[in-house]
């Protein structure tokens, strides 16, 4: 088992090195469409190395131009979504400190928000509206933190305003990680005192993972209030994951 884990770790390290080289040598001269293709292929390959099989749940198509919101379980979430359709992500600043991966997701266009920094939030909000206005696909995790499998925390409503200002729909995405029997996978949760390295070792050393991604019905933003959008997106994702207890969106603070 230790030999297998060491081999998987070695493959992951080599893949990360390849990603670093691509970001340093190719991205500065690549157009948006080529960058997206490279990010999509690299993300899919990363999932394969981690023995995570992506399974698209039948439903809505993934919109090419929308504000994407998803429940947040693991560091894998960004790569699962990017393997389907690359996005410009908004993420908490702590992700930037992750070894190697933090730098890679930054090079892929991720915008980082410092917890409790309202000035930072206003600046980033303007950038999101501009990106959406340029017909880019933007994604964030409105819970603001990771939650245990099957639990959807209340959504922060602030960044939903970007969809209203840019006049684009909000598309909820439901994520789940299951084992061969269809139960929540025990190795994927990234909560409590679990570190980034701990999580990688647990995933590489555990049983194979099935990542289920469901693109849900888009929610029109025109004429809506951000709290209404946040609640509608929350309810759609919670319903897709089988969570029936309603939870209310959060208005105060920033998403992280």
UniProtKB/TrEMBL annotation:
GO MF: acyltransferase activity
Keywords: Acyltransferase, Lipid biosynthesis, Lipid metabolism, Membrane, Phospholipid biosynthesis, Phospholipid metabolism, Transferase, Transmembrane, Transmembrane helix
Source domain of life: Bacteria
EC number: 2.3.1.51
Cross-referenced InterPro entries: AGP_acyltrans (IPR004552), Plipid/glycerol_acylTrfase (IPR002123)
SUPFAM superfamilies: Glycerol-3-phosphate (1)-acyltransferase
Free-text comment about domains: The HXXXXD motif is essential for acyltransferase activity and may constitute the binding site for the phosphate moiety of the glycerol-3-phosphate.
PANTHER family for this protein: 1-ACYL-SN-GLYCEROL-3-PHOSPHATE ACYLTRANSFERASE, 1-ACYL-SN-GLYCEROL-3-PHOSPHATE ACYLTRANSFERASE-RELATED
Name the UniProt record assigns to this protein: 1-acyl-sn-glycerol-3-phosphate acyltransferase
Species classification: Bacteria, Pseudomonadati, Pseudomonadota, Betaproteobacteria, Burkholderiales
